[in-house]
């Protein structure tokens, strides 16, 4: 969607242009208005603007000076200057500054102004399409490679790939780890920031922290790091590769040396981050290397250690096996070892629901709910019960099927663990609920879309006297403006602004024919800011003026007019 900003110190010009483009229903644009240069600067600060239609002479800051600000803030933004001054020097200076799509006089016909905007919009859309295929630089390719590497490593949290498959992935993605050797883990987090109070600066500092620690740990052996969560990091380490003839005792010694060095190096890195970057960092590290099958539980266990070691404290160095304030964490409990896997599986179940894959859903549902359930503690079963309940209820509510299912089964048991006699009855109950969801979901996406369209129509009809922007309407149905615009056009065959104009015109006809209200008040009642704008729109729609329509269709008693 193209964002258009209209800037002029003459309100009548701004409002006239606004109405002109609002009626241009074939243009997919969001329109902003500024009656002073300073209002325009505020809008440019808060929103990405693609096209500016601006006067060239305004109090406080000229259009030429505003142009320089626009180019600095949004380099790809195009500008159309609209002025009452037919002076070549202004045009020449504006064009030299760059970004100028056109230079028009205020007395130009609406059609010429509209054609200029259409041309600029087409140019912007073409450039956007070109930019979307511009992933050519080495930096972007490296970022893409890093993202894929991160995905591969974090997939290990949820699964246990065969060593040969893991080795092949490491080789393809240039990950310098060996799939046939254990791996040593450490995680870290940024505790506090000394000075930056914006996300951009903090992201840069977090990146710097990761690089500093990488530099220190690389002295101990092979080191790979990835960022995760909110300014948290994971380091995976192995000793430098030795020959196959290396005795076992030498390999064991290499691991001991690596772990001993890591502990000292993390302390040094912690000090460097504090002194150089002014950032407090905490670490949790393993007590021994883990094989790749234990990678996921070990990672989650370290996260728990670091989390429990918080309590407002900073610059912690936590080793596995430490007691944290007298608290011992049982690393063998299913909650700590497999809760990440459970969330992954529940997410997959939700995906199967969304896509209507009942067979795949049931194939995964059975092991999730039944596997070794008898060995789970009571708290583990409660976690599983309420996790599954939340996913199923959330989907049923989003798709509008909750009221349908409530007439077919007792959905109160979805949130009452004690209402079930055995765990087997829980498994059967959730399975029945899921089957009903699949049986009734066929029409649910269409029903949801229809309700969205109906809600928009109702809102428009009840608020014709107000400013019905795409942003406001999108907020009403909890969608983005761009998505709502595409959805409405796809489902109805017309643009949303076309429908709004149609409703306003229908209401205007009704009021002109059936009331004695003054035409300027009717204009306000159907959402037009000035009678001339209303008259122009009405004539464009019906080929006659509002007064001519009233004269031809007025049904009131002449004495009551």
Topology of this structure?
Layout: E1 2-7, H1 11-22, E2 29-34, H2 37-46, E3 51-54, H3 63-73, E4 78-83, H4 88-97, E5 100-105, H5 110-131, H6 138-155, H7 163-172, E6 184-193, H8 199-217, E7 222-228, E8 232-238, H9 248-277, E9 279-285, H10 295-308, E10 317-319, H11 334-355, H12 358-370, H13 378-398, H14 402-406, H15 423-440, H16 444-462, H17 470-476, H18 481-492, H19 496-514, H20 519-525, H21 531-542, H22 546-553
Parallel strand pairs: 1-2, 1-3, 3-4, 4-5, 9-10
Antiparallel strand pairs: 6-8, 6-9, 7-8
If you had to describe this structure to a student in words, what would you say it looks like?
- By secondary structure, the chain is of the alpha/beta class.
- Helices cover 57% and strands 11% of the residues.
- It has 22 helices and ten strands.
- The strands form two sheets. The chain has a five-stranded parallel sheet with strand order 2-1-3-4-5, sandwiched between helices.
- The longest helix is centred in the middle third of the chain and has 30 residues.
- The two termini are 46 Å apart.
- The relative contact order is 0.06.
- About 4% of the residues have low confidence.
- This is Helix-turn-helix domain-containing protein.
- InterPro entries: CheY-like_superfamily (IPR011006), Homeodomain-like_sf (IPR009057), HTH_AraC (IPR018060), HTH_AraC-typ_CS (IPR018062), Sig_transdc_resp-reg_receiver (IPR001789), Tscrpt_reg_AraC-type_HTH (IPR020449).
- It comes from Cohnella soli.
- It holds the Pfam family HTH_18.
- Keywords: DNA-binding, Phosphoprotein, Transcription, Transcription regulation.
């Amino acid at each position: 969607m193209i964002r258009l900003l209209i800037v002029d110190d003459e309100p009548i010009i701004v409002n006239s242009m606004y109405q002109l483009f609002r009626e241009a229903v074939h243009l997919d644009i969001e329109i902003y208005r500024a009656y002073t240069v300073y209002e325009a600067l505020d809008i440019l600060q808060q929103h990405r603007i693609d096209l500016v239609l601006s006067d060239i002479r305004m109090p406080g800051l000229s259009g030429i000076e505003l142009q320089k600000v626009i180019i600095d803030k949004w380099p790809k933004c195009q500008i159309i200057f609209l002025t009452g001054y037919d002076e070549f020097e202004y045009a020449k200076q504006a064009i030299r500054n760059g970004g100028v799509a056109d230079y028009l006089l205020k007395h130009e016909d609406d059609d010429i102004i509209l054609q200029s905007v259409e041309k600029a919009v087409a140019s912007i859309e073409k450039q956007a399409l070109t930019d979307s295929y511009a992933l050519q630089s080495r930096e972007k390719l490296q970022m893409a490679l890093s993202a894929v590497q991160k995905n591969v490593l974090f997939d290990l949290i949820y699964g246990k790939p065969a060593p040969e498959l893991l080795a092949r992935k490491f080789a393809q993605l240039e990950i310098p780890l060996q799939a046939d050797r254990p791996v040593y883990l450490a995680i870290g987090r940024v505790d506090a920031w000394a000075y930056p109070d914006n996300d951009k600066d903090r992201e840069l500092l977090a990146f710097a922290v990761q690089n500093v620690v990488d530099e220190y740990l690389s002295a101990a052996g092979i080191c790979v790091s990835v960022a995760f969560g909110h300014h948290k990091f994971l380091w995976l380490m192995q000793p430098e590769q030795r020959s196959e003839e290396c005795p076992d005792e030498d390999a064991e010694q290499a691991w001991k040396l690596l772990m001993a060095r890591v502990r000292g190096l993390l302390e040094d890195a912690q000090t460097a981050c504090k002194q150089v970057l002014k950032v407090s960092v905490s670490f949790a590290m393993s007590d021994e290397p883990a094989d790749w099958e234990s990678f996921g539980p070990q990672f989650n266990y370290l996260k728990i250690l670091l989390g429990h070691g918080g309590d407002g404290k900073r610059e912690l160095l936590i080793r596995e096996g430490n007691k944290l304030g007298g608290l011992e964490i049982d690393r063998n409990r299913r909650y700590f070892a497999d809760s990440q896997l459970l969330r992954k599986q529940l997410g997959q179940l939700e995906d199967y629901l969304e896509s209507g894959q009942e067979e795949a859903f049931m194939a995964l549902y059975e092991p999730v709910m039944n596997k070794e359930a008898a060995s789970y503690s009571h708290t583990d079963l409660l976690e599983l019960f309420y996790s599954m309940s939340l996913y199923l209820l959330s989907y049923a509510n989003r798709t509008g099927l909750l009221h349908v299912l409530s007439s077919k089964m007792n959905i109160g048991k979805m949130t009452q663990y004690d209402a079930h006699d055995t765990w087997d009855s829980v498994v059967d109950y959730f399975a029945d609920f899921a089957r009903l969801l699949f049986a009734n979901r066929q029409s649910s996406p269409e029903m949801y879309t229809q309700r969205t369209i109906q809600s928009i129509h109702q809102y428009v009809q009840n608020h014709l006297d107000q400013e019905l922007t795409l942003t406001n309407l999108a907020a009403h149905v909890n969608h983005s403006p761009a998505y709502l615009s595409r959805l409405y056009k796809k489902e109805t065959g017309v643009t949303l602004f076309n429908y709004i104009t149609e409703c306003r015109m229908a209401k205007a006809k009704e009021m002109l024919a059936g009331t004695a209200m003054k035409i300027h008040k009717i204009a306000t009642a159907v959402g037009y800011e000035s009678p001339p704008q209303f008259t122009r729109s009405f004539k464009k729609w019906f080929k006659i003026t509002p007064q001519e329509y009233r004269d031809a269709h007025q049904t009131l008693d002449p004495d009551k007019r």
